[in-house]
Structures are given as structure tokens and as C-alpha cells.
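Morning run. Coffee first, then this:
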Amino acid sequence: MSETQTDAFKAYARKCGAVFTAVVCGTLIMVAASYAPLTNHHLSIALVLTAAAVNAFLVAGYLMHLIGERKLIFAVLAFTVFFFIGLMGLSIWAAHDLPALGAPVAK
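And here it is:
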């Protein structure tokens, strides 16, 4: 019985090592993309954000074991994403709600 546990542990350790290697590679890609002399600044931002999203999925999904969890955790994550998008939308909407420079202030 200990041999099967040892084999299972070795397989799990191998999987965690692969995920860790992927996270390190993703981090290196983010750093390289931030220093890369790309002509389009939006492309480097997109590369960094894509690598960050992949890293976040790997860490949350595999290293924090959220892939195999119950529906409640995914519901909480869905609400978090929903409210985050809502707050970002409100922030963008409020950015255009500023008075013009040099406009008189109402008393």
C-alpha cells in the first residue's frame, strides 16, 4: 500500500513541478515582454496581461486546488469577477465626469 501512495505522491510532485516551471516561464515572459523594444506599446501590454492571466489560472487552479473544488467556490469567483468588471466600468465611466480645465467653479 505504501508503494501506491509513493507512486501517487511522485505523480503529484511531478505535476506540481510542471506547474511551477510553467509559472516561472510565464513570469519570465512577462518580464521579457515589459523590457522588449516593441513598436506597439499595446502589444507588450497584451502580452504581459495574457501571461499574468495564465499564471493566475495555474496558481489558483492547480497549486491552490480550486479546479477540483465545489460549485460554491466557483460561484464566489464568478461574483468576484462580476463585481470587479462592474467597478472597472464605473471607474472608466467616472473618468469622463470631470469638469474641464479652467471651467468656473459653481458656488
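The mean pLDDT is 83. Good start to the day.
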